[in-house]
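Q: How would the structure tokens look for this protein?
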Amino acid sequence: MLAFAQTAPHIDVAGHAERHVQPDRFSINIRVEASDPKPAKARLRVEEQMAKVMAGFRANHALPESIDASTFSIGPHSIYVDDRMTNDGSEVTRTASATFARLEDLRHFIDGLDTAGEELQIVGTSVSRSDANTIDSELREEAMRDTQRKAERIAKAYGVKLGGLYTVSDQPARNNRYDDEGIMGFAAAPNKAPPIDLTVGSLKKESSIYATFLLDTAKP
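A: Here is the predicted structure in token form.
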């Protein structure tokens, strides 16, 4: 069947759909770590910092189901002494994350953190949509319809009939490269899709579908 698709008249097209939406979920990841010659002391400092983080989550209305904290991770801590790596104790680490429904709540949480030292670090923040799965499904359907429109337009331009759909995928076929109109050309492997724009002002959601349509070369 694959050999048939490679030799039979066909069109390879890429359908695309995108949408800019306002984010309604604001997430943060926290890392707490401390080192000490005595593991118990390092663990106590981490526990104290983590208690403040969890209290801050609750005080600033983090979504309860989103709050997550890892268990303790304990390992050796090393420093350079006279150009040699020396073990000077143990390092204890925990991570935590939470999501807020309002940007203002996340900002208030961050403002209340004490990150002056090295024990508490903000690993990163991100934005998302609570209905992301629904939006992704809608964009996927729009991208599918886009492949149909492009294939029909190309077939009409060449005076042939569009046949049935042969393959469809959310990944381009190997060595296929599509131009800005979603029409396939042959070149090196395509570049990776650009990352989602995670600005607070808008969240860019997009979907691409790659389809192969057979052609009926008989004149209409």
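Residues 183-199 have pLDDT under 50 and may be disordered.

The radius of gyration is 27 Å.

Upvote if useful.
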